[in-house]
Amino acid sequence: MTQPPDKVISMTVERILEEAETSIRKVVPDNIQITSIDFEGPIIVIYTKNMDEFADNNDLVRLLAQSLRRRVSIRPDPELLSNAEDAEKAIRDTIPEEAEITDIFFEDETGEVTIEAISPGLVIGKHGELLNDLKKSIGWAPKVVRAPPIPSKTVSDVRSYLRSVKEERIDFLRKLGRRLVRETGSGENWVRVTTLGGFREVGRSCSLLMTRDSKVMIDCGAMPSGDGSAHPYLNAPELQPLDQLDGVVVTHAHLDHSGMVPVLYKYGYEGPVYCTAPTRDLMSLLGIDYIKVAFGEAKKAPYESSHVREVVKRCVTLKYGETTDISPDIRLTFQNAGHILGSATAHFHIGDGLYNIAFTGDIKFEKSWLFNSAVNRFPRLETIIIESTYGGYHDVQPSRHDASAQLKKVLVRTLAKQGKIVIPVFAVGRSQEVMLVMEDLMRNEQIPTVPVYLDGMIFEATAIHTAYPEFLNSSLRTQIFQQGENPFLSDIFKRVDSMEMRLRICDDPDPCIVLATAGMMNGGPVLEYFKAWASNPKNSIIFVGYQAEGTMGRRIQKGWKQIQLSERGGSITVDVKMNNETIDGFSGHSDRMQLLNYIDGLDPRPERVLVGHGEEFKCSDLASSLYKKFGFETRAPMNLETIRVK
Q1: Of 338, 530, 519, nearest to 434 (Cα)?
Q2: Cβ count within 10 A of residue 259
Q3: Which of 6, 289, 474, 533 sits in a 20 to 30 Å window from 155, CA-based?
Q4: For residue 383, what are the β-bridge partners?
Q5: Per-residue pLDDT tens for 443-482?
Q6: What is the Cα–Cα distance from 162 to 114, expressed in whole angstroms?
Q7: Mean pLDDT throughout 184-213?
Q8: What string of H, E and C letters represents the secondary structure of 470-498?
Q9: CA dihedral over 548, 551, 556, 559, signed as positive or negative
Q10: Would you say the C-alpha torsion 461, 463, 467, 468 has a positive or negative sign?
């Protein structure tokens, strides 16, 4: 008689855990007490009453991982840990007030407690004595970090929420761990990619990677133009039912890649989302804002805030270069994509050496003011799916230096006329780069010092950047954390925190600069400044990011002299007389030459390149050029194509 699937999985798990225990006993010395072994997501967790023995033997964990061929986490037996309330009180009683603790958060998944402080040295104490005393008294392993220069409400809210659902999350991870070790089929395996959105277009990026035993979705984004086709093709038969998905991999937080992930939970998906930690936090910030913008425009949002919380609860975060199992036959590794904070290229190793495929997401193959250049070296690679936002023949962007010089020229010219400047920016990425350049120009007196107002989510997104310094480029990290010079904290930047303040800025006769969302002007506070200032030729609007076809920003960028906008339930016509400038060098996307150089430098060289995330003619042109230049098999598939790559 055939066993039910759940019983088969349970039998498989028990067998693997028994084998794991046998392997562990062979590696771990007899004096170390192992109290239990379990799965949590892709990790085998080993609980022990002898944490110090593991801490003193760095090779032991490595040997265990090699023996088990899985990621291993060593944690203290729960009996050794004080409850979180008592532990927090002990920490605050032990650490001197001068350390200025800003946050304490407990990570039940690791048995660590992170202590965030203005003066981390005072937390550690002389020769680490304070931390050692704490560890003995509370059981938790203390980890000390410097407090971010700008407190982030989003980061704090995410941590608080994860604390509140810790039992549910552990239960979820244990179920996930059991699903990951289910038996695979026998016979021929194969690899297919189905394009569900973002091919021969920019927006609603979504792909489905399938093998005989697995289904993994890569990105699930919204269409920025909001023209009615906001969703990817989630009703494609290959995708249904959603509860058969093994996982969703999100390359970065921009809405055209992550904006529809909460919809999956609305319609029955309950599995994991794999992303970097900054992507998780930024994705939740942008998801909540997506709901607010829809409400403000009297539209029905496609999901509710509860669905955003479900995404956060089920996120499995990875660092760059960290490899993890995400299905019985697929392993995932993230590499830096250089696009925005936490953006990643997703590399999939399928089967036991069967096939390797990478999805670049959005990439910047150049060191920027914020990030290091995208990584293009992988252990193995047969197929790569690459973006082509600026992949057209004439898409050559100026360097960052030239872009800065061009911005300086426009600012000087406009401010000399006592004009105002509005810059539509994406809250994540472009706004922080523009802030760095403006701070440098004003500090060095290359442009007049005027207020730079930040409206929308820019300030909060900037705070999240400072919470994850390890994802910034090395020179910026050094400037902020070693030299004590944080350009984001400059006095020139003013946060717009109310409608009243926004109206005062719009009516103020003095010159100023406003950075405001949304980056493509399809909603958000940027429209208020545009309405107020568009008719004055002294003023300027500066586009520093990509404007998708069909968006308000694209119409203005093209030079439309009259723009229809909604106001209080009606419609108004805005006459556009302000100066209209586009500065391409700030883009977080690679231009044509950078894309060609990225492919040229790929190590190893792939057999096949699929091109997406670009307007139709740019996808086709880049695919054709790659074939002619390198001789790869190339394709620019349309949405809803299924391509067998192995």
Answers
A1: 519
A2: 28
A3: 474
A4: 357, 608
A5: 999 999 999 999 989 999 999 998 898 899 988 888 877 7
A6: 14
A7: 94
A8: HHCCHHHHHHHHCCCCCHHHCCCEEECCC
A9: positive
A10: positive
| Domain at 5-78: CATH architecture | 2-Layer Sandwich (3.30)
Which residues have a Cβ under 8 Å from the Cβ of 500 and sit 6 or more positions away?
none
Q: Which helix (H) or strand (E) holds 316?
A: strand 315-317
User: What are the pLDDT digits (tens) for 5-49?
Assistant: 555 555 567 787 888 888 888 888 888 889 988 888 888 888 888
Q: Which residues, listed in sequence order, are joined to residue 106 by a DSSP beta bridge?
A: 113
Topology of domain 189-394+589-644 in CATH is Metallo-beta-lactamase; Chain A (3.60.15)
Q: In sequence order, what DSSP letters do the residues of 44-87 get, joined into one string? A: EEEEES-HHHHHT-HHHHHHHHHHHTSEEEEEE-GGGSPPHHHH
Domain at 81-147: CATH code: 3.30.300.20
What does the radius of gyration of the chain's CA atoms come to, in whole angstroms? 26
Q: Yes or no: say if 410 and 542 are a contact pair by the CB < 8 Å rule.
A: yes
| Token output for 484 | 């004590």
The 10s digit of each residue's pLDDT in 522-534 is 888 999 999 999 9
Distance CA 212, CA 26 (A): 35
DSSP state string for 337-392: -SSSTT-EEEEEEETTTTEEEEE--S---S--SSSPPPP-B-S--SEEEEE-TT-S
The residue whose two tokens read 């690899």 is 191
Distances (CA, A) of 234 to 205, 209, 240, 243, 405: 11, 14, 8, 13, 44
CB under 8 Å to 42, separation ≥6 — which residues? 70, 71, 176, 177, 180, 316, 324, 325, 326
Domain 403-586 belongs to what architecture? 3-Layer(aba) Sandwich (3.40)
Name the token pair of 461: 């997104």
- Domains of the chain, by residue range, sit at 5-78, 81-147, 189-394+589-644, 403-586
The 3-state secondary structure of 98-130 reads HHCEEEEEEECCCCEEEEEECCHHHHHCHHHHH
User: pLDDT at residue 2 above 50?
Assistant: no
- What's the half-sphere exposure (Cβ side, CA atoms, 13 Å) at 304? 3
Taking only the tens place, the pLDDT of each residue in 497-509 is 999 999 999 999 9
Closest to 146 (Cα-Cα) out of 477, 460, 473: 477
Which tens digit of pLDDT belongs to each residue from 221-257? Answer: 999 765 556 799 999 999 999 999 999 999 999 999 9
